[in-house]
Amino acid sequence: MAKYSATIDEDTRQRILALPKGVHFSAFMRKAIMVFVGELEKDPDLEPEDFVITHTARKDISGKQ
């Protein structure tokens, strides 16, 4: 698998390191990257400013109320 790296500023790096131990940062990043790649495949002319990251509630797919 190819690896890709991007630089981040020191403040962001410190904030990532300060996350609680239960937060699996890499899982969140994998999900975000999959969404970004999907959108860029649809429209390669998008720029970083065209993306807005939001939090949504997870859909309950179990069918239980």
Total beta strands: 0
Oligomer: single chain
Rg from alpha-carbon coordinates:
15 Å
Profile the largest sheet: none
3D architecture notes:
- The chain has 65 residues and is mostly helical.
- Helices cover 40% and strands 0% of the residues.
- It has 2 helices and no strands.
- It has helices at residues 10-17, 25-42.
Write a compact overview of the structure shown.
With 65 residues, the protein is mostly helical. It is built from two helices and no strands.
Features:
65 residues
Give me the secondary-structure topology.
Layout: H1 10-17, H2 25-42
